[in-house]
Amino acid sequence: AQHFLTRIEAQRDLNAFISVDSEATLAQAKIADATIAAGQSQLLTGIPLAHKDVFVTRDFVTTAGSKILAQYKSPFDATAIDRLSSAGAVCMGKTNMDEFAMGSSNENSFYGKVKNPWDVTRVPGGSSGGSAVAVAAGLSLGATGTDTGGSIRQPASFTGITGIKPTYGRVSRYGMIAYASSLDQGGPFARSAADCALLLTAMAGFDEKDSTSIERADEDYARLLNQPFSSNATESQPLKGLKIGVPREFYGAGLDEEVKAATQAAIAQYETLGATVVEVSLPKTELSIPTYYVIAPAEASSNLSRFDGVRYGHRARKYSDLEDMYRKTRTEGFGWEVQRRILVGTYVLSHGYYDAYYLQAQRLRRMIAEDYQNALSQCDVIMGPVAPTPAWRIGEKSADPVQMYLADIYTLSLNLAGLPGMSIPCGFSACGLPIGLQIIGNYFDEARLLQIAHIYQ
Ligand code: GLN
Predict the structure, then answer these.
(1) What are the TM regions of this chain, as residue ranges (predicted)?
(2) Which of 72, 221, 380, 397 measures 20 to 30 Å from 254, CA to CA?
């Protein structure tokens, strides 16, 4: 813990953390020491992890990247955090993120931008950018993130690490500050699929405090890592029998040539490992952008109504009456992107527009989920790029929110369908920026995805 605290201090310019509290960390580390001394080590005893500041924690302030929650301290730990600490993990601090997880570049944080350690003039991706940087820069061995529309996979891809977004309902959302409840899902970041498997084993599981948590037995996600993929797998072809679907729509206009080449080379490498490749189609890929950017803001506008200056966090100092207090508190407390989404969300939910926007988006959402089932009936997993380009320059897209939304094209549909997916590093651009390969599976296929990633790694 001391080693990583020193590294965090030395790398402060990356701005990966919102709160670090060495006393709290060292107190947790002491408990881990005692557990080891007593011969009672658990799965993650003493493993230093960084937690996205969207998970509430008792020992550390939780802000969700927002001014409205500055200094907020929760009386309890989120279930996912509680499970990781019960397995022995030590918290190194809370990581920077786009405010309320709204963003793809970590430029929307009240606590400042996060820098990509591969090139500090570039973004680390978002919204879990701080967590991805904590792992990529060696400030912790693993980290937690949340993925509503790509926020684990895309920053993992931009920083050259591994991240997995599990099936919706697998990781408890209790104590995870809600952005879009029907899409939000927590998951881990680490250097490898094998490490992600250990972290996910501790994090995931049924929780009666989350009404959308799936009642299913706990799983050991590492169980397939060293197993043969199929009965006809051989040493040189360990993935014999694996059928990979490559969606044609993931290789259309707008895809950067280097990302195309790196992901295609990775898929070719999978073929040499014994897999076969088929072309599949996800025809509504482009429509996933407007669908997501109606549904997510709609849910956000409802979820964020609880930040009213009465129950939590910031309250405006001067106001004339209750209405005025709400208005001033929320105007001062929320950043531009959050305000934009609350406005979009309340608009699409309002009388007269609900049918035209929200209901239409819900219909499209169902069709997008059906497209995936159709594609997955022809293959075991789907592979393709995570994002159309490698990490862009800080400031490059911040003036134009639509440009930022378009960069989510390959990640949003997975959340609309509730499927699991991951990003693994698969190469670099000519200027040395990491590129990720996305691997998508059917519901509850996490152990398989991790095995397929592990064999490649
Ligand atoms: N970039 C998407 C958004 O801004 C996804 C963010 C996320 O997954 N939390 O909403």
Answers:
(1) none
(2) 380
